[in-house]
Amino acid sequence: MGNKRSVRLIAVLLILVMFLGVCPTALLAQALSDVGEHWAKEAINLWTARGIVKGYEDGTFGPDRFITRAEFAALLNRTFGFTTVSPKEFPDVSDTAWYAEEVAKAAGAGYMEGYEDGSFRPDNNITRQEAALVFARIYNLEQIDESYDFSDFDSIPDWSRKAVVAVAKAGLMQGYPDGSFGPARNITRAETVSVLDRLVAEIFTEDGTYGDAGEATVINGNAIITAADVTLVNMHIKGNLLIAESVGDGTVVLDNVVVDGELDVRGRGPASVVLENSKVVSLTVSKDGVRIVIRGSKVDEARVKSASTIEQDPDAEGIEVLIIEEIPAEGEVVLLGDYGNLTVKAVAGKIVVESGHVDEVVVDETATDVELVLGSEASVSNLVLNAPATVTGSGKIEKATVNASGAVIEPEPEEVELGEGVSAIIGGEEVVYVPEEDVPKAPPKPPVVPVSAISVEGVAKVGETLTAKVTPTGATVNYQWQASADDGTTWDDIADATSKTYILSENEVGKLIRVKVTGTGNFTGTKTSDPVGPVTAGEEPEPVVSTYKFSYEVPADVVAGQEVEVAVTFATDVKGDYGYEGVRFQFKAEGPEGAT
Fold it and tell me: Is the pTM of this model over 0.85?
């Protein structure tokens, strides 16, 4: 028994020593003696220099040796910075095995899941088709059911065929000189490193600042950041940029960086990714707790698959299209700043818009149990609910379009539109769709007509009546008569002169008169007439002389010089032109001897 245990222990130690890049002891940097003429020598030397892969203690690399599934997982975990471990247990992976954590990371990242019987088979050599499936999963390559011109294509099984086509089309894995792919052949160490070299153009494994502010650095392919605190300056990455889980709670700063492909943020924990004056075509946030800060930068489209915070500087162009695809249970996505279009496809979860403005929020029909919280300093121009959702908070909503029953909107929108047959709770009250034919239609509004002209008719003389004449005839207007005492330099409104006509008074003598009108109802515009005048005084009427004859007998006792009161009574109701009040009497008495 003792000898068997010793042999087993030695075997394990040998596996550890031969393992690709995960030796239990540090190996000194050395020239590799067996890669000088190998077809993969450049890739092997580069990745050895990067410290991702290592040779053996005897100075060889063993490029044509096969690599086990456990070694393959460890290499990919180191390259892509995977740190999340899966609780899944494999019956053939012991907790004390050197590769136990590496297998758990591979399962946690989802790129290696084991076999149908539940085993992982860590010591089995990994085949080319298995490797193809892993690489396709890691880089989210589109797997389409189509053919490829490998001579043995028909022998590739269904479970790996799409992945083989995907990696071949992406240029990651190639066939052999005879035109075959060799799906069941074991992949070699050299082949594995070559695939990584095609997949990753640059990798940043140490903290620090990279790039030159004075001269742009161009990376012709994909790049990976695995170190915790890295700043990239003045770079153009002509591929994808992966910020790995291994960044942890560190900070990655992209300062004047252009990413032509996808910026994939997988940093685990409260990591911060800061975009300063950068441009990104596509951003994906797929790990919880990440904080994205955007300053003076532009992101065409962003996809959120985790509980995270995105903060945009007011001066930044920022994210044009934001899609929230996944939110973990009890998690939330927090947004600050201005956004163009926000689409929610998550199944459950909370989106908090703390502040800023969103042009349009669309809750997709695939979303369920979504809550949108609008802070007091947040506003939405157009809210579209294609699935029942709950909107809370005190923010402002200009218009809400509800196309699914069961929605609840606490902050009352300025305008609400319901889809056919839809009911919702809005502002605490139930609102039900009413067919258009049942809604009373308002009478058509009369056309808007401008007031085109105004003139004054009448004589500018005290006592005369001036009349305003408006064009078009029948226009409804407000009148204001005005007077000018300085030949039209200044005009004063005449008090209480607001009707169509105006009677001139002595107060207007010597003044010019005009009228100003302003349209009301469906008549618009303001017009002012030409002035009339100056106003002249009216002529005094000449007295009308009439003779009224009557006789009066003077009493005998009246003597000369004595005043006599005479009462005159008109015998009829005819008063003449001036009436009784305008009559003056002059008496002339005649005596019997002609005396007066």
Answer: no
